[in-house]
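Changelog note: in this version the structure field was regenerated for every chain. One regenerated record is shown below for reference.
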Amino acid sequence: MRPVTCEQIQAWADPAEAAITCRTCRHPDVAGPGSVVPVRLDAATIREGI
């Protein structure tokens, strides 16, 4: 298993942040489908506070 890099996290976050607008924030009951993704973090990453 490869460690997750800061660049990879940013690549995941960019499209998610782009999808957030004032309209979607004001209407929490209009949530789309979601999924649970299990993530395993090593002790060093947890200590660094991601």
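Spot check on this record: Residues 4 and 38 are 13 Å apart (CA to CA). Helices lie at 6-18, 22-26, 43-48.
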